[in-house]
């Protein structure tokens, strides 16, 4: 797998999981909410039933007072979701007025509904206070209306209903808070995953840009050098000009192959990525021959076996050497020679590229490029620090040491 392929794989893995399921879950919840009746319709059912009950069961002499008290107890429930404490206070006042009048009504259930609403929408202190108020009402009601000698039974039963209403309200509030926290966490995870996907995509673009820079810069530099040689030799030595043109053609085909191989990870129908092996340490000899043909005599020395070096690490070595030799070819005069030394050990690969040419102009006078930064990025992926600069005895050198056990293979 190339460096770009590794990044693309990670980008795809980041995009697959949770966000789609989270969006599906929210869409399903919205669909379920869309099929429900509005809350006001549900809140209107109990007041309507209580009013119908009082109209059909009470005698005409008590009807006006019963209807008025029932309305005072039940109608405030219509606004219980918007102002639970205000509604509870209104229902409690109506219940106290009912107690003062001495009328027993089924609408007293409105107290339990108001207490449930307070528990579902208020904190612990508000719920305890509302429960204490209702419990006081239970005590007053039992003292006034409980049969003689049977106070305890209705008091315990009504106390149990008060506790149940408060507990159900608190449980609903806790459940809502839990679901809200879960939804917030899902949205946060989705945002984080989308951010990771964007970062992976940006990293992937950087990898592809770096790979394309190395491929295009090297091959174009070689082709320019060979073209100049062919133009120079076309009259004096037509055979050498023909050889240079053939090498230009071969270099162009190799460049196309490298580009297809590197970009083939973006297309499932691109066969070149599988048909051609990745360039590595074994291909450095062909690279040195190519540079020699382009006018840069290059000597290659490989010490140690490279069979244990991962393919991605070998690709990094190849690109480092390729970029260093390309810079030498572009920035040094004719007659410059280059030397490449590769040392493979059990846990590291040392890359050392030197040339005999004059030092390049200082950075302030040279146009900015991507060569050295890209080389440093490649070396850093394997825990290496790339050093590039003039040599004491003249010439220019590039040196780094790649650590094979630093995890760079996964991140290169």
From TrEMBL:
Residue ranges occupied by any Histidine kinase/HSP90-like ATPase domain in the UniProt entry: 314-402
Enzyme class of the recorded protein, top EC level: transferase
Family matches, as InterPro entries: DUF7134, HATPase_C_sf, HATPase_dom, Sensor_HK_TwoCompSys, Sig_transdc_His_kin_sub3_dim/P
Keywords (A to Z) from UniProt: ATP-binding, Coiled coil, Kinase, Membrane, Nucleotide-binding, Phosphoprotein, Transferase, Transmembrane, Transmembrane helix, Two-component regulatory system
Known catalytic reactions: ATP + protein L-histidine = ADP + protein N-phospho-L-histidine
EC number: 2.7.13.3
Region annotated Disordered, chain positions: 1-20
Cellular component annotations (GO), alphabetically ordered: membrane
DUF7134 domain mapped to chain residues: 38-176
Keyword Disulfide bond belongs to the record: no
Coiled coil: 172-206
Residue spans crossing the bilayer: 87-116, 152-172
Pfam families in UniProt: DUF7134, HATPase_c, HisKA_3
Location of the Signal transduction histidine kinase subgroup 3 dimerisation and phosphoacceptor domain: 204-269
GO MF annotation list: ATP binding; phosphorelay sensor kinase activity; protein dimerization activity
Signal sequence range: none
Protein name: histidine kinase
Organism listed in the record: Kitasatospora camelliae
């Amino acid at each position: 797998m190339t460096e770009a392929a590794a990044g693309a794989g990670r980008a795809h893995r980041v995009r697959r999981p949770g966000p789609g399921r989270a969006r599906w879950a929210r869409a399903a919840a919205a669909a379920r909410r869309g099929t429900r009746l509005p809350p006001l319709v549900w809140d209107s059912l109990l007041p309507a039933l209580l009013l119908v009950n009082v109209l059909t069961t009470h005698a005409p002499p008590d009807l006006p007072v019963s209807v008025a008290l029932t309305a005072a107890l039940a109608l405030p429930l219509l606004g219980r979701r918007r102002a639970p404490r205000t509604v509870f206070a209104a229902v409690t006042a109506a219940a106290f007025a009912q107690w003062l009048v001495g009328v027993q009504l089924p609408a007293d259930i409105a107290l339990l509904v108001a207490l449930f609403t307070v528990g579902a929408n208020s904190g612990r202190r508000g719920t305890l206070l509302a429960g204490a108020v209702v419990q006081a009402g239970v005590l007053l009601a039992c003292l006034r209306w409980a049969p003689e000698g049977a106070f305890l039974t209705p008091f315990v039963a009504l106390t149990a209903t008060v506790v149940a209403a408060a507990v159900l309200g608190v449980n609903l509030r806790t459940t809502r808070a839990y679901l809200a926290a879960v939804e917030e966490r899902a949205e946060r995870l989705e945002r984080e995953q989308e951010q990771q996907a964007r970062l992976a995509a940006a990293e992937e673009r950087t990898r592809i840009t770096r790979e394309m820079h190395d491929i295009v810069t090297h091959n174009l530099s070689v082709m320019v050098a060979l073209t100049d040689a062919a133009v120079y030799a076309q009259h004096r030595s037509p055979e050498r000009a023909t050889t240079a043109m053939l090498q230009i053609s071969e270099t162009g085909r190799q460049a196309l192959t490298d580009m297809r191989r590197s970009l083939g990870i973006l297309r499932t129908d691109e066969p070149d990525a599988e048909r051609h092996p990745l360039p590595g340490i074994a291909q450095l000899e062909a690279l040195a021959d190519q540079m020699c043909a382009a006018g840069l005599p290059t000597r290659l020395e490989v010490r140690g076996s490279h069979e244990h070096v991962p393919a991605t690490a070998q690709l990094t070595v190849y690109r480092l050497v390729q970029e260093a030799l390309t810079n030498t070819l572009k920035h040094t005069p004719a007659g410059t020679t280059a030397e490449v030394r590769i040392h493979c050990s059990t846990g590291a690969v040392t890359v050392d590229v030197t040339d005999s040419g004059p030092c390049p102009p200082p950075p302030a006078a040279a146009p900015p490029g991507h060569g050295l930064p890209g080389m440093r990025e490649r070396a850093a992926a394997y825990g290496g620090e790339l050093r590039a600069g003039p040599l004491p005895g003249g010439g220019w050198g590039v040196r780094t040491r790649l650590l094979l056990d630093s995890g760079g293979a996964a991140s290169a």
